[in-house]
Hints:
Number of strands: 8
Distance between the termini: 45 Å
Largest sheet: 8 strands, mixed
Number of helices: 13
CATH topology: Rossmann fold
Shape: globular
Helix content: 40-55%
Structural class: alpha/beta
Order of helices and strands: HHHHHEHEHEEHEHHEHEHHE
Strand content: 15-25%
CATH superfamily: Vaccinia Virus protein VP39
Amino acid sequence: MSATRATIRQKYGAIAAAVASDGSQPAGCGCADPITSNLYSEAEAAAVPGAARAASLGCGNPTALAALQPGEVVLDLGSGGGMDVLLSARRVGPGGKAYGLDMTGEMLALARENQRRAGLANVEFLQGTIEAIPLPDASVDVVISNCVINLSSDKDAVLREAFRVLKPGGRLAVSDVVTRGAVPGELRRSVELWIGCVAGALEENDYLAKLAAAGFADAAVEPWRVYRAADAGEFLAAAGFDADRVAPLVDGKFASAFIRARKPAAAPAA
Length: 270
């Protein structure tokens, strides 16, 4: 296991343990508040247990982005406390299924308890990495993810695996942080910011190129929340940077984005 992956697993394990213990997150965990705030409607938040909401550290709402339909099979890469999986399970209904995949045992335990509290039978949480998905080829209709692909040091492998498990014509609908132009190298090297889903962000065009290389069609990256210097100050300082010096260098360079793509339908038989 790489040092970065071990650090990420330790950090998110601590988050899960804190949420399971008293419903709170440890200070300085996960993505920064400007990234994680105001992502779900009141009705969506009320539809899942409080512990699922507390452990949600994403940067968007992929369940709404994916336009899930009754009867579909959906997979959430990096499912954490299970919020997006539980919302997906309600959208696809009893005839569909929602899988959650996470590498952290504590998060999986929290997610399974949230599933029990939600009373949903069409949910299954799997342990594993997003670079090696433990599902068969062409087994899901939709792959979603919420600010997790940023955490992988091998995003090409993640996208290849997502393509593999999708059925022909299946959809990728991801919320992620992207960069818009050059970002100072010192930020890229910060593990704390990597855990916070910023340092591992791909540039918009790089994301599109990697989707195409994996085989996806109709790919689009749609930034919807661009972060300004004022948003960055607190979490840059928490990561040990001189916020006054660094914040202007990242002003407007990071954005939460919706990433959509499609696996081409199988070619007709000759």
